[in-house]
Amino acid sequence: MIKETFVASTPKEAFAQAVEKYGTTDLEIVSAKQMRYDDGQIRAEVIIAVDKELFREKSFGIENFKPKRSEDEEMHSEISTLREQIEQMKEEITGEIIEKSVAQDVKALFVKKGISPKWIDGILATLICTPIIEDASLLVSYLLEEMDESLKVVEEDLSIPKIIMLVGPTGVGKTTTIAKLAARYAYLLEKPYKVALINLDSYKVGAIEQLSHYAQIMQLEHFAVPTPEAFKERIEALEGYDIILVDTAGMSPYDTGKFVKTVEFVTSETPRKLEVNLVLSATVKYEDMDDIYRNFSFLNLDSLIISKFDETKHFGALLNFILLYKLPMSYFSVGQEVPDDLLVANKEYLLERFAGDVHEG
Ligand SMILES: Nc1nc2c(ncn2[C@@H]2O[C@H](COP(=O)(O)OP(=O)(O)OP(=O)(O)O)[C@@H](O)[C@H]2O)c(=O)[nH]1
Ligand SMILES: [Mg+2]
To answer: What pLDDT, on the 0 to 100 scale, is given for residue 95?
Structure first.
C-alpha cells in the first residue's frame, strides 16, 4: 500500500480531491489533520492508503509503465551494445593476459615449433582466470592433452575384404610402405591374410620392377594396371583375396594430369571398400601442406600415413596439419627397413616426439 497525502484548505476539500482522483468514496483514510504551514496559512492534510498499482494507474496512467515499442527496441540495442563491449573487453583481457603472462612464452614456443597461433589462442581463451595459464609446465601439458584429444587414429580393421590405396607426393615412401603393409598382413599378424598387389604407376621408370621385386620376395601376386576399366576387372578377378594393396604414381600437387587420372581410379565402382591413404613425409615443408591437402583431398582421403619419422625431430608443422584437417592417422613409417620399420599409428608416439622438441625449447 501507498500512503498518499491530499492538501486543501479544509479536510472536506482534501478528501474530495482523493474521491475525484480515485472515483470512489470507499477510501481508507489513515489520518486527517489541519496544520499551519511555514507561510502562515492553515491547511488540511488528508492521508489515504491506496493499492500501489491503483496509485500508479491513477497518478501516471498504466501506459506509462508499459515500455513503448521504441523503448523496447532501444533497450535491445543497448543490450547488444553492452554485449559487444563485454566481448571486446573479454578479447582485450585475453590479449592482455596472454601478453603479460607466461602464456605468451608458451604460445611463442608452440608457434616456433609449427603450431598455428589461432589454434593456441582458441585454447588459451578458455583458460583465462585459471591457474593453468600462469604455470608454464602446466600449460604445456594442457596444450599437449588438447592435441591428444583432437588427434584421431584409425583402428586397424581387417575383418572385411578391402582395397587399400596409397597416394601422395613423389618419393614420400608409398611403394616402400606398400611392401611393409603387404608383409604385415600376409605374414606378421596372428592370422595370415591373402594379399595381392596392384600397381597404377605407369609413369616412373622402374616403378613396376620396384613393386614386383617386393612381390617376388614375399611370393605375392602382383599386377600392373593401366586403365580404370582394367583396374575394375582386376579387382573383380581378385575376389578371393582379403586385402588388395594399390600403389600409385607419386604426384606433385600441381600435376593436374596425374590427379585427373588417379581420380578416375578412385571413383571407379569396385565391389569392395576402397580406402585411400595419403602418405605424407614428416619432413614435409610447412608452406607446401595446404596445397598438398587441397589437391589430394579430391581423392576422398580416408586416412593419413606418416612416413620418414626417423628423418626429423620436428613434428609441429605436421601436427598442425593434422589438427587443421582432422585426418585420422593409420600407420607410421619409421625407417627404410622392409618390413620392420612400420608402426600402427599411435598418438603417444607422435606427441612424445613433439613434446621432446618443445622441451628442448
Ligand atoms: N628414412 C626413411 N626413408 C624412407 C622411409 N620410407 C621410404 N623411405 C625411402 O624413401 C625413398 C623413396 O621411397 P619410395 O617408397 O620409392 O617412395 P614413393 O613414394 O613410392 O616414390 P614415388 O613412387 O617415386 O613417388 C626410398 O629410398 C626409401 O627407402 C622412411 O620411413 N624413412
Ligand atoms: Mg613408388
So the answer is: 63
The side-by-side arrangement of strands in the sheet containing 42-50 is 2-8, 42-50, 28-36
Q: Count CA atoms closer than 13 A to 298's CA, side-chain side.
A: 18
Ligand 1: residue of 167, 176, 246, 283 to mutate (most ligand atoms within 8 A of CB) is 176
Report the DSSP beta bridge partners of residue 276.
165
% of the chain residues with pLDDT over 70: 94
pLDDT of residue 260: 82
For the entire predicted model, the pTM comes to 0.74
**Mean local confidence (pLDDT), 155-175:** 95
- CATH ID of 162-360, from 3.40.50.300, 3.40.140.10, 3.10.20.30, 3.10.450.50: 3.40.50.300
Query: In this structure, what are the phi and psi dihedrals at residue 349, rounded to the nearest 5 degrees?
Result: -55, -45
Which position has the higher pLDDT, 16 or 304?
Answer: 304
Pocket of ligand 1 (CB under 6 A): 170-176, 201, 204, 250, 307-308, 310-311, 333-336, 341
Counting ligand 1 atoms within 8 A of each CB, the residue from 200, 336, 353 with the most, and so the one to mutate, is: 336
Which atom of ligand 1 lies nearest, measured to the CA of 333? 31
